[in-house]
């Protein structure tokens, strides 16, 4: 989401049409236009988890994955974003060439940027209203908008440049940057997928070695370093364009299953030591010195490995033709995944509204639970409304399904 977006700067030399030889060398195009509901399911689940994690600790907080391992919902969100973006726009680049596909990608970047600016304005208005009405300046400090209140003119410029971001608004700027550089990444990946992934790994390693980062305003760096998080995004794109299919034998191996389960159990024990002080003496000191701090801004290797272990087990036991994906019980979370940009923005708004309600009106464990549940219900209801509106407006449309960028859940 803790706190939806984006990296290696490559030449964006346009190509009017795709060359026949290149098309033959590229990975085969998907044979079906049917949505991959697993992507929608886990993207929607990530949106729910991000919302819950942005609220004060409550009963539902203990159901989020960050309490049981090193990674959290952000890794899920960014990986699926890379996968779906490559799936949809990679097909467009094969069929229409670099220029048309790049134009469609940049149009999507603009849409996400506008959504980010709109969310920024609404978020600031929400916080400022609450802080003024209840005469509690701590809201402004806690949500990171004190600099805006002091110098609104300068801060707005920095916000438009994606350098100033209030608390919980870090995922969309990351995705904007990642998507902005997607055209050259896709161009290379459709020709030399392994080379594109290798360059991504090299940039990730250089980020750690040379301490690469983007500066933030008024100080510090981005909460999610694009130079590091691009690895997860590019890996998702690599999987979508044939990488996952090539790894089928590895994913089906019992050795992979045992190693993944062992790593998840080890990570679970480590996280238990954070909440159960009695277990802390069982942690070897040398291991602690080696692994801490587990760096989230730069996508620590332990976090990345934890996500890979989760993904390997998920793919092993949740086939894409699982009948439960059509269940009405999973429909709300799948709908949220299919409208992720809108639901992410709504979740940010609801998270602060929930914090305000719990702090100023009512508290307690049961109220915490009700606030979390109410937020999820509102997000699901909004997703249903968006889906209904899309169906209504799509009636009578003559555009072929193959030109629909929303197929495969591939927008955000």
Structure description:
With 412 residues, the chain is mainly α. α4 packs antiparallel against α8 (171-180), α13 (254-275) crosses α15 and α16 (331-338) packs across α18. The model is unreliable at 1-33 and 399-412 (pLDDT under 50). It has helices spanning 20-25, 37-54, 73-96, 98-133, 138-142, 146-150, 152-160, 171-180, 182-189, 193-210, 226-246, 248-251, 254-275, 285-291, 301-317, 331-338, 340-360, 365-394. 41% of the residues are buried. It has 18 helices and no strands. Helix content is 65%, strand content 0%.
Give the radius of gyration. Answer: 22 Å
What is the percentage of strand-forming residues?
under 5%
As a percent range, the share of helical residues equals: 55-70%
Tell me which oligomeric state these chains represent.
single chain
How many individual helices?
Answer: 18
In short:
With 412 residues, the chain is mainly α.
Secondary structure topology:
Elements lengths: L19 H6 L11 H18 L18 H24 L1 H36 L4 H5 L3 H5 L1 H9 L10 H10 L1 H8 L3 H18 L15 H21 L1 H4 L2 H22 L9 H7 L9 H17 L13 H8 L1 H21 L4 H30 L18
List keywords for this structure.
mainly alpha; 65% helix
């Amino acid at each position: 989401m803790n706190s939806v977006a984006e990296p290696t700067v490559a030449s964006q030399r346009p190509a009017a049409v795709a060359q026949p030889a290149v098309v033959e060398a590229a990975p085969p195009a998907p044979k079906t236009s049917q949505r991959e509901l697993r992507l929608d399911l886990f993207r929607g689940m990530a949106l729910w988890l991000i919302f819950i994690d942005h609220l004060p600790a409550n009963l539902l907080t203990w159901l989020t994955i960050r309490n049981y391992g090193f990674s959290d919902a952000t890794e899920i969100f960014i990986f699926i974003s890379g996968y779906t973006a490559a799936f949809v726009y990679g097909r467009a680049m094969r069929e229409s060439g670099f220029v048309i596909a790049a134009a469609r990608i940049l149009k999507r970047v603009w849409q996400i940027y506008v959504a980010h600016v709109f969310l920024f304005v609404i978020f600031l208005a929400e916080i400022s209203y609450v802080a003024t009405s209840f005469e509690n300046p701590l809201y402004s400090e806690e949500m990171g908008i004190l600099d805006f209140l002091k110098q609104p003119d300068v801060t707005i410029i920095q916000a438009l440049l994606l350098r100033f971001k209030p608390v919980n608004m870090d995922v969309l700027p990351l995705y904007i940057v990642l998507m902005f550089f997607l055209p050259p990444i896709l161009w290379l990946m459709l020709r030399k997928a392994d080379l594109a992934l290798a360059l991504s790994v090299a940039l990730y390693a250089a980020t750690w070695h040379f301490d690469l980062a983007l500066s933030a305003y008024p100080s510090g760096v981005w909460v999610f370093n694009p130079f590091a998080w691009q690895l997860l995004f590019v890996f998702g794109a690599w999987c979508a364009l044939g990488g996952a299919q090539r790894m089928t034998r590895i994913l089906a191996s019992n050795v992979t299953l045992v190693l993944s389960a062992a790593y998840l159990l080890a990570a679970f024990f480590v996280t238990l030591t954070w909440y159960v002080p009695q277990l802390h003496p069982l942690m070897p000191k040398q291991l602690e010195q080696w692994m801490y701090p587990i760096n989230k801004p730069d996508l620590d290797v332990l976090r990345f490995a934890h996500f890979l272990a989760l993904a390997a087990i998920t793919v092993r036991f949740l086939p894409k033709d699982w009948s439960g994906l059509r269940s009405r019980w999973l429909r709300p979370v799948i709908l949220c995944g299919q409208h992720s940009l809108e639901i992410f923005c709504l979740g940010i708004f609801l998270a602060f509204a929930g914090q305000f309600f719990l702090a100023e009106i009512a508290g307690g464990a049961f109220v915490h639970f009700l606030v979390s549940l109410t937020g999820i219900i509102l997000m699901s209801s909004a997703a249903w409304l968006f889906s209904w509106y899309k169906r209504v407006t799509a009636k009578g449309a003559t555009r072929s399904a193959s030109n629909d960028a929303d197929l495969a859940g591939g927008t955000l």
